[in-house]
Specification:
The complex is a heterodimer of chains A (242) and B (502). With 242 residues, chain A is mainly β. Chain A contains three helices and twelve strands; from the N terminus they run E-H-E-E-E-E-E-E-E-E-E-H-H-E-E. An eleven-stranded mixed beta sheet of chain A has the order 1-2-3-4-5-6-7-8-9-11-10, with helices on one face. The longest helix of chain A is centred in the last third of the chain and has 13 residues. Chain A is globular and about 55 Å long. With 502 residues, chain B is an alpha/beta fold. An eight-stranded parallel beta sheet of chain B has the order 11-21-20-18-17-14-13-12. Chain B has a three-stranded mixed beta sheet with strand order 6-22-23, with helices on one face. Chain B is globular, with a radius of gyration of 24 Å. The chains are: A mainly beta (242), B alpha/beta (502). At the A-B interface, helix 1 and strand 12 of A face helix 3, strand 5 and helix 7 of B. Strand 12 of chain A pairs parallel with strand 5 of chain B.
């Protein structure tokens, strides 16, 4: 089903059509800021041409969402499964409290990406950012994997301040020669070669399948920093019974 | 060098009554009681006692009592023993003081300074035993635009509503902070009573999906256990912005309390700390809150009311006004005396305002702005009795949440040690041997008894005022009078002093 929308289309009308159709393949053309597209969806393929609004694919429970344009804030909020593929940039709070599925962004993401990401049994969320990420990347991270590839080639740092603050689970891979910012003492950064990490290899190979002109081999043949919780210096219990 | 802190309470055993049966020893998870082989007698270590009264209640010969210790520091009206002990605890450990249940300090309880009216001679009282009394309330947006179709028939544009048989619900308590059996008791009681219980932020156990019609699920900053099916199962969804016991503070369920089952319900690995950050990191404005509300409405097809729970803080009326405009169907306000499974003592005891004052201001503000009907108001934070419910409704509430009273019905004795996870009553614990002490078959009956009794009392108080429908009592502040309140307090509450006539 193809849905043509314009700036006058109310998000409720659009989303109701996406929700109610039995068609499993939906293409939205001319999207301009309509929020909550594919929220709570599963088993559907939704392709968005233009610019979807906030909370794209929140509570997504399966299926695929493709965006040919930039996504806004809160993409994949509390997402449980499925894939969101963005051929552009993503705004703030991408993948907030995400529990499963994957979000692949070709360009950059804003503040607070992957914040409070968690994993559970076979649910292991993945976020891959092609360009750079804003401050607070992976704050409170409790599980899952975040990868930042730093492909902009503009010399700007690929992360900003307060990366991995409060992180107590999961992994963050940063593709860069040296860490641009300090990380908290409760997490550790280990320098690795991308090819040596099988988990990273699988993710990057999968990412490259979605974007033209990306070569996994080239991307992996580089220095990465792997950030994980520091078991030797965990966040201490700070309470005393009263 | 740790400073020794003497026990606040002493276990006293009547040697003549004690048969040495050992029930007290088996019942105490804190290891207070033991059999002393050298003397052939039971002995007790009062320093381990939390005064939960489990042993007192279970002793078959009633040989035990717990008394306030008469050990005393040199009396000082400025430095109480409690305050001194807190300094010692922090000097010993370097930790932030952690407490449970509601603020126990001696702040005014405004409900106790408000009196209800009754009819005499004219507008006679109604006897609820012989005349119908309506206690049912509907929670949700009531501001509908009247629309008719071409035939002139009314088009139903009413937003989704929660129907309560009586204006009382069980407030948010997560699985993790309380036990499986406590949750089962609450769920079954809510179903039988035609009211709702609230999962808190710990997710919903698979076994309890069948009570979905009477379940309010929570979406908090940690988003534990939140997924499409969870939202779909519930009757309503509550976004937790704040909690009365710890406004501005998040939650932290330590890994040791994340049992196998709790891990499944929260959808996080076993043994890993569950941290709920203080803010939702995607909410920095009313507009952001609106976004989360509509995300949930979109995910559930606009079929369920959305509740936004906030703590009663100084600026609560302005915040509530913003929440009412954000698309929320119901606002829940939690006063500074509200309970908790664990909160930093200083926050619990010093932050927030009384629910009575917050409610009065919120109701007035929403009326002044002409948006009272766009949202229902539910209040919490030490609703002790049916009289408090009636007073809250007359101050403007649509319904009340009760937490502590419900736990008392399940056996809680307010020892305020929930955070240790060793609740001898099987409520605030995940230890299987303790959880099984709370029998949900009996527990749910006791909750049904409590709410049924309160509902009878509500009807009697309403009848006394000559009011036969709880809706007609809502915001009817002429039914209230203050006693011993100053002018500012009366003004904030919007009521007159006792003795002032209509």
């Amino acid at each position: 089903m193809i849905i043509n929308v314009n700036e006058c289309t109310d998000f409720r009308v659009l989303n109701k059509r996406v929700r109610d159709t039995a068609d499993k393949d939906i293409v939205i053309k001319g999207c301009i800021g309509q929020r909550y597209i594919a929220t709570g969806a599963g088993e559907k393929k939704v392709t968005v041409h233009g610019t979807p609004g906030n909370a794209l694919g929140a509570y997504l429970n399966g299926g695929e969402v493709y965006v040919y344009g930039n996504a806004q804030d809160a993409t994949g909020d509390t997402m449980n499964g499925g894939a969101i593929i963005i051929h552009g940039d993503a705004g703030d709070a991408t993948g907030y409290a995400m529990r499963g599925g994957k979000i692949y962004v070709k360009g950059n993401t804003g503040y607070r990406a992957g914040i409070h990401m968690k994993e559970y049994l076979d649910l292991k969320p993945v976020i891959v950012i092609g360009g750079r990420a804003g401050s607070f990347l992976g704050e409170y991270q409790a599980g899952g994997i975040i990868v930042v590839l730093g492909l902009n080639g503009d010399g700007m740092p690929i992360i900003n301040n307060f990366c991995a603050t409060g992180m107590h689970g999961g992994r963050i891979y940063l593709r860069c020669g040296k860490l641009p910012h300090k990380i908290p003492s409760q997490v550790r950064a280990e320098k690795i070669n991308g090819e040596s990490d099988m988990q990273l290899k699988g993710i990057v190979e999968d990412y490259c399948r979605y974007f033209d002109g990306m070569n996994a081999g080239e991307l992996l043949n580089a220095n990465f920093f792997l950030i994980t919780p520091n078991e030797e210096n965990p966040y201490q219990r700070m309470y005393t019974d009263n | 060098m740790d400073t020794f802190i003497p026990a606040g309470y002493e276990v006293v055993r009547d040697a003549e009554r004690c048969t040495g049966c050992g029930v007290c020893e088996r019942q105490c998870a804190n290891g207070v009681h033991k059999f002393d082989k050298s003397t052939g007698k039971m002995i007790a270590d009062s320093n381990k006692c939390v005064n939960c009264h489990r042993c007192v209640c279970m002793c078959p010969t009633h040989a035990l009592k717990i008394v306030k210790s008469d050990d005393t520091y040199r009396l000082n009206a400025n430095w109480s023993a409690q305050t001194m002990n807190e300094v010692y605890r922090q000097a010993n450990s370097g930790g932030v003081l952690l407490s449970s249940m509601g603020n126990p300090n001696d702040y005014p309880v405004y409900f106790n300074k408000i009196l209800l009216n009754a009819s005499q001679v004219t507008n006679p009282p109604i006897d609820p035993l012989r005349e119908p009394m309506e206690t049912a309330v509907y929670l949700g947006k009531k501001d509908v635009e009247i629309k008719r179709d071409s035939q002139g028939r009314l088009i139903d544009t009413l937003a989704p509503q929660l129907k309560l048989s009586t204006p009382i619900m069980f407030s948010a308590m997560s699985y993790g902070s309380i036990s499986y059996n406590a949750h089962e008791s609450l769920a079954r009681a809510a179903e039988e009573l035609g009211i709702y219980y609230n999962t808190g932020e710990g997710g919903l156990h698979k076994d309890f999906y069948k009570y979905g019609k009477n379940t309010i699920v929570q979406v908090a900053s940690g988003r534990f256990g939140v997924h499409a099916e969870y939202l779909e199962t519930a009757a309503a969804i509550e976004i937790k912005m704040g909690q009365g016991a710890k406004p501005g503070i998040g939650g932290h369920l330590p890994g040791m309390k994340i049992s196998d089952d709790v891990s499944k319900t929260r959808m996080i690995p076993k043994g890993v700390d569950a941290i709920s950050p203080a803010p939702h990191h995607d909410i920095y404005s009313i507009e952001d809150l609106r976004q989360l509300i509509y995300t949930i409405k979109e995910a559930t097809g606009y079929k369920k009311p959305i509740i936004v729970k906030i703590a009663a803080v100084h600026n609560v009326a302005a915040i509530a006004s913003g929440v009412a405009r954000s698309g929320a169907d119901i606002i829940a306000i939690d006063g500074f005396r509200g309970g908790t499974g664990a909160a930093p003592t200083r926050i619990r005891d010093n932050v927030g305002i009384p629910i009575e004052l917050a409610l009065a201001r919120v109701d007035e503000r929403l009326r002044d702005e002409g948006i009272r009907d766009s949202v229902s108001v539910v209040v919490a934070g030490s609703v002790h009795s049916s009289a408090d419910v009636v007073k809250a409704v007359a101050l403007g509430a649509d319904a009340c949440y009760i937490g502590t009273a419900a736990l008392l019905a399940l056996g809680c004795h307010l020892c305020r040690n929930c955070h240790t996870g060793k609740c001898n009553w099987g409520i605030a614990t995940q230890r299987a041997d303790l959880v099984k002490r709370l029998n949900p078959d009996l527990g749910y009956k006791r909750l049904v008894n409590l709410i049924t009794a309160w509902t009878h009392e509500i009807k009697e108080m309403m009848g006394g005022m000559g009011i036969n429908s709880i809706e007609a009592l809502r915001g009817n502040r002429l039914m209230l009078r203050g006693v011993g309140l100053n002018e500012t307090e009366l003004k904030v509450l919007g009521i007159r002093h006792a003795g002032e006539d209509m």
